[in-house]
Design a protein that fits this description.
The protein is an all-alpha fold and about 100 residues long. Helices cover about 60% and strands about 0% of the residues. It contains 5 helices and no strands. Helix 1 crosses helix 5 (about 75-95), helix 2 (about 20-30) runs antiparallel to helix 3 and helix 3 (about 35-50) crosses helix 4 (about 50-60). The longest helix has 18 residues, at about 75-95. The relative contact order is 0.21.
Length: about 100
């Protein structure tokens, strides 16, 4: 399974929701800390807690339960999601000319 593509697809499917729009904004607003994979994951985790349907879609796609995942100590499956989400932020979201507006 390509985690980056899976994460990008599931996030795109939920892009119109306030939780994912706010996730875009929170990651963008991290500024220099946006490079911090753990902080990015915390923002993804927050979005999954705000929108259980997003978390359910990630689990259905074969990812671990992000909303309940313990970040420390990182288990390999969660670590892979942390790194994959960082790649989504860097490779997919940063290439966009605009981010969805937060509401």
């Amino acid at each position: 399974m390509d985690l980056i593509a899976t994460l990008a697809r599931v996030l795109a499917e939920h892009e119109a929701t306030p939780a994912v729009r706010h996730l875009h904004t929170r990651v963008r607003d991290l500024g220099a800390d946006a490079l911090d994979e753990v902080e990015q994951f915390r923002q993804l985790q927050k979005a999954c807690r705000e929108l259980p349907a997003l978390n359910d879609a990630l689990v259905a796609a074969g990812l671990p339960d992000v909303a309940k995942a313990a970040i420390h100590p990182v288990v390999p499956e969660v670590g892979a999601v942390v790194q994959a989400f960082n790649r989504v932020v860097e490779e997919v979201w940063s290439r966009r000319s605009r981010l969805p507006p937060a509401r």
